Amino acid sequence: MFVCHNQRMASRGASFGRDSGLQARMLLTMFLLGLVYVVFVGILFAAGAGAGVIVVVAVGLLLLQLFASDKIAMATLGVKEVTAAQEPELHGIVERLCVQADLPKPRVCVMETSMPNAFAMGRSKKSTTVCATRGIMDLLEPHELEGVMAHELTHVINRDVMVMTIASFFASLAAMILQFAFFFGGGYGRDSEEEDGIIFVILASAAVYAISFLLLRALSRYREFAADRGGAVLTGRPSALASALLKISGTMERVPSQDLRAAEGMSAFFIIPARTKNSLMNLFADHPPLEQRLAALQRLESQLQNAA
Fold it and tell me: How large is the average pLDDT for residues 188-195?
């Protein structure tokens, strides 16, 4: 009976693994961002802002971010790859889930911090890394940690990490051009036409950044719901993931502020956001409220029980 249950869960994981709603939202986000940036580049050309050089530099930076951003981020956070001999339980969980989800086994890493969290990074299924912090491994029971790892592997199935990486680069580029215009556009000796062009670039960059920011936040919140659902279906135990989320969220408040600040730049990729305190910026949070995630998992638990 246990084998049949696992096979049924694996079948459901395959059917639910890639969320069609998320795929549609990712396509729409990339289309809208692409459209915005075509207009943006046109504005830069019209303003005589050296757009040709900017585009060349932007493409180079995009390729760097796409192929090296995960390595740079992990090096910054002090993430280390671990072997099966070093972390047999974590490797065992990831390996079982990959077999069920028909995924290549990713690199398995550990981040030595008391902050309980986990994330996945990589541009494709074959170049993926999943990471658990020491804090989350010490905090959770094996079945709860399995729920967390299934959540992270669902991000891999959905390929939303790659889309988030590309989309966030667009926002970063607009911010970079905005800063460049502020710092180097206010010199003396410029005629009024040149100053008007710089002001035009500043306004356009600010608008592009705002649009990118809002689109990214909306996509990021939905992708967490999709990963919760896919991960819970893969394990067949939504309650395990719900229990893990409650424990992580409750413990996060006791994590030293310096640890949270060190990881805050990666907050969008963590299963629970790394924030030092609540603020008005939570209105534009990259994760949905915990209460909504728990309610969705509870509904899914009822659905799976009724289908059993």
Answer: 55
